[in-house]
Amino acid sequence: MNVDLNRAYDSFFGPPSDRIPIREFLDKSRSLPTLSAQDILSHAGWRRLSEDERRAIEAECSGGVSEVKATIEDAWNNPILSAHLYRAHDAALVAVQGQAGSAQRGRKRKHASSTSEESDAPPEVRALQEKLDAISLRCWGFSSESALFMRTSKNSDFNALRAIQKSGQGSLPPNAYDSHHVSTPDQGPSSRPTAQVPTVALITLTIYNRVPWVQSYLVRHSQHAVLSSQTLLDFVRAIPCDSSDMPAEQVDEEGNVIGYTYEGGNEGQAAEEGCLLLIDDVVYGDGRPGVDYADKLLLHLQHLPEEKRPKVTKSPTSLGETVFDTLTLRVNQPYWMLHQGNCEHFIVVDQIRLSHPADLPSGYPLTLHVTPTLSELCRACSKVPAVLAILGDIRLGESPCLVCAPCWRNMGPPRKTDDEDEDEVTVVPLPRKKRVLTDGEVW
Ligand SMILES: [Zn+2]
Ligand SMILES: [Zn+2]
Known about the structure:
alpha+beta, 3 domains, 9-stranded mixed beta sheet, 3-stranded antiparallel beta sheet, 21% strand, disordered C terminus, binds zinc ion
């Protein structure tokens, strides 16, 4: 659990920033001048320009950006041109890797054949290439050193979400991004309404999980955006985790487990089952009287020899009572989270910023990224992901055995071993992927 000064993690996240008190950040940003278009028009530098110069700048600003955008969109919307750009990009990468000595022979041949294609390319492709070649800006090219920064894509690079997902009830206050208000020329800066100042910060956090087979290696799991006016519990509840998604046990009158079900839901289970968050040696517990995870952690640390004992203190406020505003956070510093018994996550602050008019107005915390789940395949057919774990069926070679629903149906009624002492066959549904996409589709 000691996440400080671990070199493996350091190379993973980069050096941590200084401590940033969120409330102080907001207070300081309030004193920053909020520039409007009017401020620029009344600026001495602009007034010094001649009428022609002003018109030229205006034309460059208004036409220039939309022209660049239109040129790029035209190229990417044309399948012949976009295919050419992809090929040219791949060829450039292969050439760089070839220079770095890591390219394979087959790849080199592919590169050679792709360059020979250029002579009989359609005229529109040739026109685009000539245009690209004519660009005098050379810093975009790949040098041989670029190979040091290249790797193949990982599963965590992909996003299972097609759109930003709303995972809570938090809303931006109506004046949060209203600082670019209209001020008329006869109004002086002092007459501006002072209420229109940033009152909330947006904090982007990434969740990392340990890789089961290399415990020191972490992999990105999901990314969220919370408002600084929300609590740590609001954030914790937004984290998609199989441990919070386990089926409930069904017990008979004698207390024996007879099955598992998802019926009845598990709303608020994260809080019920216990959770703690360790931020810069201050531990925030779930606030359950007597069984608070923070108390349990402190008790556990007492077992360590005094010189090895980390100086952890318990926060007087629980996760549900601690608002991000009151925290002092460091960017790029992994914070440790433990919940649901022994489920660990590492939380890294990526960004602390003011809100922007383009931000979604409600639904915070937002889920920005979820790494696609790699499901175990059915042991019987090895074709589709397993959805059931079967315990104690004599026909299956192992217990538990993961199977898909059609395979289990086709096997007919369960068959237990002849041993009377053995339990009945139990069918446990695997954690449902409740990570519902914004359009309602379950994956
Ligand atoms: Zn978890
Ligand atoms: Zn199957």
